[in-house]
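User: My collaborator sent over this chain with a note saying "see what the structure looks like." That's all I know about it. Can you take a look?
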Amino acid sequence: MELKQLKHCGACGEMVDPSAGPHAHEMKMCKKCEELLPADAFALHQSSTDGRRHVCLRCVAGQSATARVQQVIEKDKQFRDDKAKLKEHGYRWARRVVKSGPDPVFRWALLDPQGQEVSKDQALRDIEIAENPEPDDFDYPVY
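Assistant: Without extra context I'll predict from the sequence alone. Here is the result:
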């Protein structure tokens, strides 16, 4: 005898067999805004008991927009922190001509304190090593 995996339906409280197909309702409660909305206001989601997400499309769109704004804010803060750290350690940005002529094309290059071009990642790694040096691997006596 095969045991069926039953799931709890959050809308009606019944235990349902997901292998029998979606357990659909005409109306559904959004877990975020707590509004009772038609089922088609929820995106499809295969692993859900009723075949739909638990959060309505409007709330999902709002979460996505908020997440995008937060991501831009964090990226900008990281950029400013990196820029300040690079400047503090003597790195500078220089504009390089890629293509000269009547409409020149430029690119920005990061220069280390000696004037050599380096990547931003390499510069940040070098700064990290300079700020947090590893102990030497010499055979110092340990007391």
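A starting point for your reply to your collaborator: Residues 57-88 form the longest helix (32 residues).
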